[in-house]
Design a protein that fits this description.
mainly beta; Jelly Rolls; 2 domains; eight-stranded antiparallel sheet; seven-stranded mixed sheet; 4 helices; about 40% strand; globular
């Protein structure tokens, strides 16, 4: 099976609006060359075959284990304390193993899910493969909880119970940390479910997740433009469609072999106008023209005619 390299993903923006774009990209990579991306799935067959991209082990290959925030004194204080301005190590799990499920909830100050940053290190890598605010990792942008139902993520109970089902194999060890950039201590509850393996799967694809934020974004009018111009509905930035890398918002630029498995896009718009008419463009293997060309932001996420409340989240 051919595994394309995703080198650049651009949004072509044609509306006069100032807004904030927040993107979480998720990759599966066979190497750890890029800091900021996390680990995932290799796939093989033994007795039972796992769905492509969602499993790597058969029922005979592993022992089920869990590392959690359960209180070692058997009280109900089942949380880790993340002190402000500090990095707290949540878990250090020996390999070979494969993470099968992450569960998180937390309590603390307002917008805490943006202040807490999850970082994951695979094996002996000096840089984290995952470095994303906890809320955004679980598809909850802007520091607000939100219920989500998708294949890899499920958030329940008004968004307070957060679950991730991406498979994340590793060879020697996995280190999970959380950094608290807020002003108050936070209570962090977690489960890390995993398969303890006899040997690591081959080929092994590390799971990576990257967080981007830009304001104002490329492809939009600058802050010097008048509010009248900014609020002009469907007012184009120029009469020429920009289908080149320069001047468009870059969701992801990376090299190597692996799978691009999707992104979460959050927009904080400063205009009443619709911001989503930009076409998604994917440039693969140094192509100078889009290898994949879409028709609009909502279309990329499997929706149509704008985005409505509770539009289902699709894996992309």
């Amino acid at each position: 099976m051919y595994l394309p390299t995703i080198s650049q993903l651009f949004k072509n923006i044609t509306v006069r609006i100032l807004y904030q774009l927040i993107v979480v990209c998720i990759l599966l990579s066979s190497v750890q060359a890029e800091p900021f991306f996390s680990s995932f799935v290799s796939y093989h067959q033994n007795i039972f075959e796992s769905p492509p991209g969602m499993g790597t082990t058969s029922i005979w290959d592993y022992t089920n284990k869990r590392y959690s925030s359960s209180d070692k004194e058997w009280t109900n204080l089942d949380f880790a304390v993340a002190e402000p301005g500090k990095v707290t190590t949540l878990a250090r799990i020996k390999g070979p193993a494969e993470i099968t499920h992450l569960w998180f909830t937390w309590q603390g100050e307002e917008f805490l899910s943006r202040f807490l940053t999850l970082e994951i290190y695979w094996d002996d890598a000096p840089s984290p493969a995952v470095s994303v605010p906890l809320g955004d990792f679980f598809l909850q942008p802007h520091g607000r909880p939100r219920e989500v139902v998708s294949l890899p993520f499920v958030n329940t109970n008004m968004g307070e119970g957060r679950n991730c089902y991406f498979r994340m194999p590793f060879r020697r060890q996995a280190v999970f940390t959380v950094r608290n950039d807020g002003s108050k201590p936070a209570m962090v509850y977690f489960h890390f479910d995993y398969h303890q393996l006899k040997s690591p799967p081959e080929p092994l694809y590390y799971f990576h997740a990257k967080y981007n934020q830009q304001f104002p974004t490329d492809g939009w009018l600058g802050a010097q433009d008048s509010e009248k111009e900014i609020d002009a509905y469907f007012q184009p930035v120029s009469k020429t469609q920009n289908r080149n890398p320069e001047g468009n918002y870059v969701i992801l630029s990376t090299r190597g072999s692996g799978y691009y498995v999707g992104c979460m896009l959050a927009v904080h718009t400063r205009s009443k106008a619709w911001w989503g008419e930009g076409d998604d463009m994917v440039f693969i293997d140094d192509s100078t023209t889009p290898t994949l060309l879409g028709t609009g932001t909502e279309d990329y996420f499997g929706n149509a005619w704008g985005l409505k409340t509770n539009s289902p989240v699709r894996s992309h």
